Amino acid sequence: MHLTTPPFRIDIPHQKLLKQIAKRLNNKGLGYGSGHLSPRRNQFYVNIPKNASSYISVWLVNNNWESTTYKNSDNVGEAIIILRDPVNRWISGISQYLSSYVVNDGKITPEIFNEFYNLAIERIIFDVIWQFDDHTWPQFYFFDECLSQIKKKTYFLLDNNFNNNFKKYLKLKDPIDCPRNAITNNTLIIANKIKDELSKNNDLVSKIKEAYEQDYDLINSVKFIDYSK
After folding, report:
1. From 221's CA, which of 4, 85, 92, 180 has a CA 20 to 30 Å away?
2. pLDDT of residue 13
3. How far apart are CA 174 and CA 189, in angstroms?
4. What angle do CA 135, 137, 139 make, to 5 degrees?
5. Is the pLDDT of residue 45 over 80?
6. Is 199 helix (H, G, I), strand (E, B) or coil?
7. Is residue 175 classed as helix, strand or coil in its secondary structure?
């Protein structure tokens, strides 16, 4: 199995780490602090990979939001931030990483991953946790620095009530479903295998939660928009 070199050292200072992340994203053509600006230019949605970002992007563009970066948000008064349970997000992120960067070059298929999953592969995956690529980086890294100038931050949790909460708060039209492709199907197969392994090993779940401790602290400290209560 090919894995890229872990992009960051965990013990380096926070500000330096953020600069490294910004550089990595720019090199991939993604841009640190990318997102969408509302039609009235007073709200900025920040993109966080694996937090339904592609789905949200299509939805917002169809409601006349402009694709841009935080650098064009000087006059914005409100940041729109979507958070997701870190364990669920990590499963989705690592599965996409494996299906995108491993499956497509012909070296492994989801079926082979399922058949030959073993302690060695498990250790490679779970010892590194979030250092694979932007799909597994902590959520707060994507806005902690770049949105510091925006005082009002409105949070949504990616759960079963998300669509209704997001639509109602931002006064959006109904979303458009994004069709699945081969990579998505491969990702789901690998994700199901990883979920199965996690269900049998609480120590692995604890490793993930420990790696994303700051994301959990954030989720437990903010108030989410929720019209179901």
Report:
1. 92
2. 46
3. 29
4. 100
5. yes
6. helix
7. coil
Residue 104 neighbours by CB distance under 10 Å = 12
Mean pLDDT of the chain: 79
What are the helix (H) ranges across the chain? 14-27, 53-61, 86-101, 110-116, 119-128, 162-170, 182-199, 202-211, 213-221
Contact 140, 215 (CB under 8 A): yes
**Cα distances (Å, whole numbers) of residue 175 to 37, 162, 219:** 17, 12, 25
Residue 159, helix vs strand vs coil: coil
Q: Compute the distance between CA of residue 100 and CA of residue 186 in angstroms, rounded to an integer.
A: 9
- Please count the residues of the chain: 229
What is the pLDDT at residue 184? Answer: 72
**CA pair distance 161, 153, nearest whole angstrom:** 19
pLDDT value of residue 22: 55
> Looking at the whole model, is its pTM more than 0.90?
no
Neighbours of 13 (CB within 10 A): 8
Distance of CA 69 to the CA centre of its chain: 17
C-alpha distance from residue 229 to each of 220, 224, 225 (Å): 17, 11, 10
